[in-house]
Each structure stands twice: as structure tokens, then as C-alpha cells.
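Suppose you are handed a protein chain with no further information: no name, no annotation, nothing but its sequence. What can you learn? This example shows the usual starting point.
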Amino acid sequence: MKQTCILSPARQLTEEEQSLVWQKPPSHIESEAEKRIYQEVVRNWNRGEMKISTILLEGDAGSGKTQLAKALSADLSLPYTKVTCFADMDKSDVLGSILPVLNENDQSDTVEYCYYPSEIVRAYENGWLLEIQEPTVIRDAAVLMALNSALEPDGSLNLPTRIVHRHPDFIAIITTNRGYNGYRPLNEALRDRVQHAEKLDLPTKAVMMERAKAKTGYHSESVLSLLAETIILLDETARANAIKGVAGMRSYIFWVDAVASGASVKNTLYHKVLYKITTDPQELAILEQALAGHGLIEKLAELDTVCQSHSEGENPEVMELNISDNGEYASEIDKADKNAIRLRKSADSEGHSDTSSDENTDGSNNDNGENGTPFYHELDKPVTSQLEKKEFRKQLNIEARQSVQGSCHDAIKLIVHRPEATAQNREEYHKMAAALLPVIRELVRKTNPILEHEVSAEFAKTQLYGTRFCADQAASLDFRVFARKRPPGEEPSLAVALRIDESASMSAFGRLDAAKQAAIALYEFCIGCGIPIMVYGDTADRAKLEQMSIYAYVDFESKDTDEKYSLMNIQARSNNRDGMALRIISDRLLNAPQKNKLIISISDGQPKAMPDYTGEKAAHDMKDTLQEYRRKGIKFLAAAIGQDKEAIRKLYGAENTLDITDLKQLPARLVQIIARFL
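A reasonable first move is to predict its three-dimensional structure. Written in C-alpha cells, the prediction is:
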């Protein structure tokens, strides 16, 4: 592949432009994506409408998007520049600003105005290679419209002082992360203007090793291979468990460099990799469990012995994350069971001890009554009349039947139930919640401050005073050149639905209790964070006149404050018609005004219902249903807790399936995942 290619042979770069052309370092290794994009750009450059000048690079942090954009600058001999987008970006950041300028030599204090072009305009006008980083975070649709106009092949920008036409050599490379917290899908109009797109994932192990050798000069194949396997496994585990951090090439290269200098392989794993992914003890425990399950913890320890790594700098607190059978933290010499996991409160929690609570909690707790029963402050709750309950149940039945019209479930006889809560249900709920609430309150306490910063930061422009100067208003004569941040008044932009498979097999191996605990934990956490939640159960073939039964235990539109106690009515019943249940729940969730919608399905087996809803027919219906509602913006996550985990994984996709081997983990895992989706 050529090292340089002048797309316009007659063009002469200025000294400034030559200094902006990126120079490849000796450690740079050309990727297949780089070769492919280069060849496509050169092949189509003089083909009119087929010209490729807008490119999308989408992938995780550390996957090499910016490095690839810079490499193309060197390959195409184009000056490189970039603009990093941010949430409150406005048109002046795209088009430039007119700002007041005082002439020091003029004694009359006359104010003049001067236009200052943005980096986008400079690249657009002069024919440079521009990297647009993270346009998905921009809130203002008008800014995206301005970008859309600029990215037209024969586009132009209407500036305050003139109209600028797109330079023939201008290339725009859009780089964006995929699926992170705060992530928004790339604007459809912007995506449509892309002529070439690349999906950048973590490279293969061989490529990772070659890049690490080039960057660090370290050449031990066995060490590089083991460290690469560790990074790949951590990346997969973080994705499967919705952990926000990333294990990527940057972490790998710096870890290799530390090991090459003689540092402990196992200790630097934490400082170079794990702590970059997360510092949350429960999330670290999940990652450690995955490493231990694949034997990598032992291999890294053996590698330390072989390499005679230094042990003076070992961190004695690292092994606190190992957890024994009884749920207590243990050191390595205690031979802790690394497959165990327990949710534990942090040491800095106010008003709580440092150990997990159990059923015999201290009766002096402010949330407990005299006999130790949790006290829920419900004396002033509104009373829902029987007529209101009946009308709401009727509404749910009508909507459910509408949801399945035109599907293969159209002729199935359906009833939606609203189970009533009894005094016994209340007592059972309080008893089960007693062990879960301390941990849930801790997670709520940690999550709510995050939500305060994630509500929409909306600005009211053209104010006489405020927190931000609006450069695009500087030429106005009304002196309204400030923006003031409006008080946040939005709820979290997430709505959650929990679907519980109530087939007969749920009665085995404690699955039913695990499902009830998960429902309580998820409900209490969502209510504590102001997140709308619905909890539905379903079964099939209870009777000839009731081929499908839906149990609406909790619904975000219900006014019944006692409905949470009905969760204790969750039980194993008959068969399961999963596709029909998901269709009804999905349509119901679409009524929520929140932007992000998540359905979690707890299931222990494959779909199976009379007369022939099984095998390929059921699988085909499930996949069609999931695909249809994913297009409508709903995310699906399956918690597989039974013998058919592999079949469930094929239906939902491996990246959307949680393999719950230890049912005790289920409540904590689901609550943690909801917290990470915020």
C-alpha cells in the first residue's frame, strides 16, 4: 500500500497544512480496515456521485478509531484536524462565531465585530481530513441539521459573513462509541450521508500481540498470548454483564509495558486493566469470577513465578474480593470459592454497617417496627376503589388482545389477571425484603446522585445574564447574549419491564424464590430511583377457555399502592408461550414516555405450548418478535436460570443473555444491570 497519495495532484499544501499531515510512527501497523478504506477512497475519488468522502467508524473505546483516522491522513496526504462534540454544542460551534473586538489604538472605545471560523469550517473550506468525534452526544437537533448540510457531497455552509462550498478534497470521518452510558443512536439523516462504514471491535489475538510488540518492544509470545486472552475474556464479560468500562487495546499495551519492565503480572492486572473497567467491588467480583472460571487467575500467578516478578509492591487488599462459601471475604490462603458472589455495602455508607444485613436485623433500625418488621410509612397512601381496579384490568385485557392481532397468536384465548394482595402476601413480602433492602438502599444512594447529573441540561437562550455566553447573539442590539440553565425537571429516561416465566418447571431448584426475590429487588430499586417499572408473569394452557394467562403484578400506570405485595403470588403453573407474552409486554412498555426501554425476561426453558407452539415454530416467532420490537427501540435481556440456557442464548443472542448458575446472584445481578443502563 502506498504511503502517500495526493488525491488532487495539482494541489500544493502550505507549510501549516504540511505540519497537520499525520506522520506514522515506526510502531504503527496497518489494519485491514485502513487498507480497505484507503482502496475504496482512491478507487472512487474521480467517479462523481460514487466518490467516498464521508466515513463512519463505530466501535468501543480503544478500538483504534482515532488512530485509523490519523493513519488515513498520512495515507492520503491530507491535513488532519478533529472536533470533539459535546452535549450542549450549538450552531456557533459548527459555523463559527462573531465576537466583539476592541481596537486598542482607537480612543473612542468603538466596538467592532470579527468572525472567527470553527475548526469544522476551516477543514471544510480548505479541504482537510476532519474527524468528528461523538456526534451522538449532541442534544440540539438544529446542530445535527447543520452537520447534515455540511456533509452533502456538493454541500455548503451559510456563514454569518459568506457562503462556503465544500472543498473537493474535504473528507469527514465520524467516530463514535457504541452502546455506552448516555449513548444515543446516530441520527438517521447523518448516517444516511455516510458512503462507507466500519465496525471496529477488539482485534484478534494475533493482531493484538503484533501491535503490542511494535509499541513496547516486548517479544515473549507466551506472555503476550496469555495477556491477550485475559483482555478478550474481560471484554466479553463486561459486555455480557452491562459493565460500563472497556477492556481494550490501550489497557493491553500498557499492561504489557508494565510486565516488560518487571512488574507483577497479577498485580498490574488490577492497575492497568480491571480498575480502568470498574472499581465497584461487585463488578470486580464478576470479572474475577470469569477469570477464575477460565483458569486465568492461576495462569497469571504461575507466570509471575516463572518471570520472577517483584513482590514488594503487592497490594494486600487485592484479595479482599475473593468470597468464601459463607459470604465472608477471605484471603488466598483461606481457599475461597471464587465462583461465589455476594453483594456488599461499601465502607463509606452512611447509617449502615459494613456487613450485609440478614433477617435478624437490629430492631432499632428506623425502618423497622417494634417487632423488627420493616415499616413502610404507608399510612397516608391513597385507596384504590374496586371499580378503578376493575376498569384498569379491563383496559389491560383490551390492550393485550390488540397486541396479538395479526400474529400467530391471534386465535389464542387470553386473559390478563390482576392478582389481589392478601395479609399473608404482605407478611411474606416484608420477610423476603428484609434481607434485600439494605443493599438496595445502598445502590439507590449511589445511583441517585448520578441521575441528578444525567437529567436533561436544557438551556434558555437570549437572557440578559446567565451561566453561558452565546457568541451567536453578540451582534444583536438587545444585549441578550447569555444562556441560563433551566432547572432539571425530568425523570430518568429509562422504563423497565420484568417478565417472569411461570411454567411448571420453575418450581424446581429454588427458581421460584429466586424470581420473587429478583422482582422485589428490582421493584424497590426502580421505585427508589424514580424509574417506571412493570412486573408481569405468564403461563399457557391453564384451560381450554384460557390458553394464555398474563399476570400483571405491577404496572407503572396503576394507582394501587398495594400491588407490590401481589408479587408473592408468582408461582409455577403450566406451559409457556414466550413470544405472545413478550409481544403484549413490549406494547405495554411502549406506552411509557421514557426514551430508553428495557425488558428483562427470567426464564428456565424454551417456549412450549399447546397445540404446536414449540421447536422451530416457537423459535421463529420469538426471533421475529424480538426483532420487531428492537426496531421500535426496546432492549431485551434474558436471565437464563434453567437447563435450556444454550437455547435461550440462541433466541436472545449471547450478548443479551445472563447465565445465572447460582440463583442467589439473580436479585443482585439484575439490580446492578439496571443501575448500569442509567
